[in-house]
Amino acid sequence: MLARTKTEVALYAAVCVAILLVPVFLQDAFLLNKYARYLVFGMLAVSLSLSWGYGGILNLGQAMTFGIGSYCMAMLLKLKTVPVHTGADGLPDFMVWNNVTELPWFWTPFYSPLFGVLAGILLPAGVAALLGWFVFKGRVTGVYAAIITLAAMVVVQLIIIDQQAFTGGFNGITDLGQFDIAGLTFDAYGSSSYYLVAICLTVTLFLALAITKSKAGLIVQAIRDEEDRVRFFGYDVALYKIFIFSVSAAIAGLAGMLYTIVMEFASPTFLGVPLSLSVVIWVAVGGRQSLLGAMLGALIVTGVQGALSESETFLDTWTLIMGLLFVLVVLFLPQGLAGAFASLARRFERQRPTPPKKPAPHTEPVANGREVESTR
Amino acid sequence: MEIFVSQIMTGLSIGSILLLVALGLAIIYGVTGVINLAHGEFVMLGAYAAWFLQTQFGLGLLASLVPIFLLLALFGWLIEALVIRHLYDRPLDTILATWGIGVMAQQAIRLTAGGELRYVQMPESLSQSVNILGATDSAYRLFILFLALGLFALTWAIYRHTNFGLKLRAITQNRAVASSFGINAGRIYRTTFAYGAGMAGLAGALVSPLKSVSPEMGTTYVVDAFMVVVLGGTQSLMGTLASSGILGELSGYLAFYSNDTIAKALVLLAIIVLIRFRPQGLFTARLRA
């Protein structure tokens, strides 16, 4: 293992341990729920960092797969409440209101929690693979790919809103049961849910890190930097892009499921443009080419936002500041805070008195993720 | 016959608004290659400028068109000078930066003018309806149609028949060679951006009496305008004209016959398929690379 990788792993582990230790010092149920929500956003940021920072695919519709995952979990949890909450034929309440007489076929498998959880991960991955196949096989890149992801998300959102009888429409799916697995029940306002989110986050963070260090991960990064050159080497560029796009979607789906557990409902706003934009901002601020940076970016931005949301005027001003911050980061810190720290650390290392006679090679961060293609 | 004519007129009316909004976006994208996601907010700012001039200074809509164009052009000029200029070699980042600018513009309006709906008075002289082949249509909508065509003709004339247009086309074809002939590409880009922003402002002012004015109104416009540009092809002004007409008639037809949400989803799906198979648009002028 490279020395740099070792430091990286140690850093990641330290952050994860800190996150896992929070409930030891904090018993407030409301705060734990809030922090668990931030951690879910952190996971969502990790997923976007994987496809945007490492794969060079700017997914402006990352909330699409997040929302699909959250709806899967909501369907599972809704069916848990059915015998209790509704009398008529064991149907979810909003179906009764919409005169649906029998449970639609795509709802029935969600009686099995295992199916529900698997669907929450595999369905987003599958949808992403299909979209990726459509886009990347046609060699659509850069700006156009970004616009397609955005449009696809809005289409899914419109369908969910339109099919009110089966999805709850604008209101989403509310009044959910509690998630339980192997005798453990996860209460949204308790340390159990916080631990569930924190452990999932730790696992995905290290899994994602492992992927970026694997051979496939390296090829994906090579494609980001010089797509044509990798293609001339004989690699199936589209296949690698579909791979990283789907992995990213699977993580987003998992995050969506956890979000439903923590929030206790699913809503079409989970697939909305504002959330998608926020994810892009978190990742840009934290640093898209660092998984940890992206995650911390999400925690910092949502944390500050949460602290200011007590007052209406502060929140409004905050949105304004957020926009400005975003523009400034795009202009001056394309690699985000993580990139800034990395180059600071490098400069510090260079200034230590020990270096050999030969001056250290000039290691400016390569302008990665930059589009080589011209739009004309 | 009457239904037929009024259906066509509805389509033309929608199309003329689309043309007004898309013209600015098409120019900016065609020349500089920047996808301006803040374009909808430029439209929104134009509408708010019309509202402000009307309620604060009692200026009629027609009288305020020129000041609004100049105001928005200045705004666009500033945005280009402060932000866009640094991003020409990073097209993906221009999406992000303009998105951020859009968020800021929306929020700034919400903080200053408030989030509630605003209404702009239609000019007195244009508030009657006109009879065309048995169908009645609002005079104001006809006015917008002719003004949109007029502005299009003006833009076309600038593009084709002026010294500035010549330089513009030279830069679009090959920036490096054009620069070596002494054309100041930076200045041309900035002027283009300002002109596009001014156009967006005009569009916003003109639609403001037809729809309510709100901080979020720009979002739908930017999507529609982007559709027009993608369909029309990024290099051709004539394509923009044709696709505005097609999309206008099509949306009029869809809104008449089907449910709005599904119509929207279908249009977006059509765009996805179009980008995938013909990213250069339907009406493309062939250019040397």
Number of helices, counting only DSSP H or I runs of 4 residues or more of chain A: 15
- Please tell me the overall pLDDT of chain A: 84
**Structural shape of chain A:** globular
Question: How would you describe the oligomerization state of the chains in this entry?
Answer: heterodimer
Largest sheet of chain B, described in full?
2 strands, antiparallel
User: Radius of gyration of chain B from the CA trace?
Assistant: 19 Å
Poorly predicted residue ranges of chain A = 363-376
- What is the helical fraction of chain B, as a range of percent? over 70%
| Strand order in the sheet with the most strands of chain B | 1-2
Order of helices and strands of chain B: HHHHEEHHHHHHH
How far apart the termini of chain A lie comes to 43 Å
In percent terms, what proportion of residues of chain B is strand? Answer: under 5%
Strand order of the largest sheet of chain A: 1-2
The count of strands of chain B amounts to: 2
Q: Provide the residue-averaged pLDDT of chain B.
A: 84
Rg of Cα set of chain A: 22 Å
From N to C, what is the helix and strand string of chain A? HHHHHHHEEHHHHHHHH
Structural class of chain A: mainly alpha
Please name the defining characteristics of this protein.
heterodimer; A: 376 residues; mainly alpha; two-stranded antiparallel ribbon; 70% helix; globular; disordered C terminus; B: 289 residues; two-stranded antiparallel sheet; 11 helices
Short structural summary:
The complex is a heterodimer of chains A (376) and B (289). Chain A has 376 residues and is mainly α. Chain A contains 15 helices and 2 strands.
Q: How does this structure look, described?
A:
The complex is a heterodimer of chains A (376) and B (289). With 376 residues, chain A is mainly alpha-helical. Chain A has a domain at 27-272. Chain A has helices at residues 3-25, 29-54, 62-85, 93-97, 113-136, 142-162, 164-167, 191-213, 215-225, 227-232, 237-263, 273-286, 291-308, 312-332, 336-350, and strands at 179-181, 184-186. In chain A, strands 1-2 form a two-stranded antiparallel ribbon. In chain A, helix 2 runs parallel beside helix 8 (191-213), helix 3 runs parallel beside helix 6 and helix 13 (291-308) packs across helix 15 (336-350). Mean pLDDT of chain A is 84; it is low at 363-376. By secondary structure, chain B is mainly α. Chain B has one domain. Chain B is built from eleven helices and two strands, in the order H-H-H-H-E-E-H-H-H-H-H-H-H. In chain B, strand 1 (129-132) and strand 2 form a beta hairpin. The longest helix of chain B has 31 residues, at 2-32. The model of chain B has no long low-confidence stretch (mean pLDDT 84). Chain A binds chain B through residues 58, 60, 134-135, 138, 140, 142-144, 146-148, 151-152, 154-155, 158-159, 161-162, 273, 277, 280-281, 284, 316-317, 319-320, 322-324, 326-327, 330-331, 334, 369-371, 374-376, and chain B through 33, 35, 83, 86-87, 89-93, 95-97, 99-104, 107-108, 110-111, 172, 219, 226, 234-235, 259, 261-262, 264-265, 268-269, 271-272, 275-277, 279, 287.
